[in-house]
Amino acid sequence: VPLVVRAVPSEEAPRTLWRRTVYSLRATIEQEGVERASATGSSDPFAAKELGFYISFFTIDGTRTEIDQLLDTVDEIRQGGKMDAFVMADTFGCVHPQSAFEIVTRVKRRFPTTPVEAHMHMHFGIGAANTLAAVAAGADVAHVAVSGIGEGAGNTPLEDVVLSLKCLYGVETR
């Protein structure tokens, strides 16, 4: 199965723990859908789910959260039907590849049918290594940015991940 590599624009950078990140199943969201979502004016951060949008539950700084607490929180949101995918976010870029691998492994073990997305930052220059470790553990989506442009020290560079996957691992991306 080819890995889906999605670029996350820097303006989509998360601001709060309960902020949801909305993605369409297609490359772009139809204008009608955007207008419907805007017209609701709902204060419910998960209102987009009821409108038919694909929801990735973005746990800000999730990699520094105690793993059982993180998994229990994800389970609560998942069981409530409020998410389609879980985003393992290393907001401060402080996780190392071994931990990224272990976290994704534990998430996939507990929620085998829930897609996992990896969102890493470059504070210690290892965002690409962390992303590759997450993919090796079963992450379904890698959040990347062109030239690593993003909040803080930047996001994982698209170029590093795509070239590593293709040249070192023989994985085709789309």
Question: What report would you give on this structure?
Answer:
With 174 residues, the chain is of the alpha/beta class. It is 36% helix and 17% strand. It has six helices and six strands; from the N terminus they run E-E-H-H-E-H-E-H-E-H-E-H. The protein has helices at residues 31-40, 47-50, 67-79, 97-110, 127-136, 158-169, and strands at residues 4-7, 20-23, 54-59, 85-90, 116-120, 141-144. It has a six-stranded mixed beta sheet, with helices on one face. Strand 3 (54-59), helix 3 and strand 4 (85-90) form a beta-alpha-beta unit. Helix 4 runs parallel beside helix 5 and helix 5 (127-136) packs across helix 6. The protein is globular. The termini are close together.
List segments where confidence is low: pLDDT < 50 over at least 5 consecutive residues: 1-34
Question: Which word captures the global form?
Answer: globular
Number of helices: 6
Q: Give the strand tally.
A: 6
Largest sheet: 6 strands, mixed
Q: Average pLDDT value?
A: 77
Kindly report how far apart the N and C termini lie. Answer: 11 Å
Beta-strand fraction estimate? 15-25%
Given the helix and strand composition, which structural class is it?
A: alpha/beta
The secondary-structure element order is: EEHHEHEHEHEH
Strand order of the largest sheet: 1-6-5-4-3-2
Helix content: 25-40%
Rg on CA atoms, Å: 16 Å
